[in-house]
Amino acid sequence: MKHPEPKPLILQEISLYQELLECLEQEAQALAAAQEETILSLARAKEDILERLLGVKKARLEQPAPAASEILQKDLAHLERKVATLNLRNREIISASLEVIQDFISQFLPSGPGLYRPEGRVEKGSGRALFHRQA
Question: Is the dihedral of CA 58, 60, 62, 63 positive or negative?
């Protein structure tokens, strides 16, 4: 009985990028719907995919393999760009969400002592914009 030949590493890498793209799309939907458990499970899935992807990339660098076709190289480059774009989009969604949370929390915090200058105390409201949205 013959075993099927393993997929070339570039095809494995392309497959993992496609899997990562799907995961990023699901993450964006979960972020928009504020589904915490789904977000956490997708984070674990992304971590697993990225570990496998790193292994395939290392193997591709270590093993001299026949040159992949130009079409496969272009597909891989396109997928890498798309993953980077979707990841950036999700990061921006997360950052905006954190800003909203920070603004909401700051409404419940007591105001600070205000700012002091050599001429005396400055009103509590002035200067708050300087420190607003610090994480």
Answer: positive
DSSP character string of 18-54: HHHHHHHHHHHHHHHHT-HHHHHHHHHHHHHHHHHHH
d(Cα 75, Cα 16) in Å, to the nearest integer? Answer: 12
pLDDT digits (tens, 9 = 90+) for 68-123: 678 888 999 999 999 999 999 999 999 998 898 888 888 887 766 556 666 665 55
Q: Which pTM was predicted?
A: 0.68
HSE on the CB side for 64, CA within 13 Å? 0
Every domain of the chain and the residues it spans: 9-102
How far apart are alpha carbons 50 and 13 in whole angstroms? Answer: 10
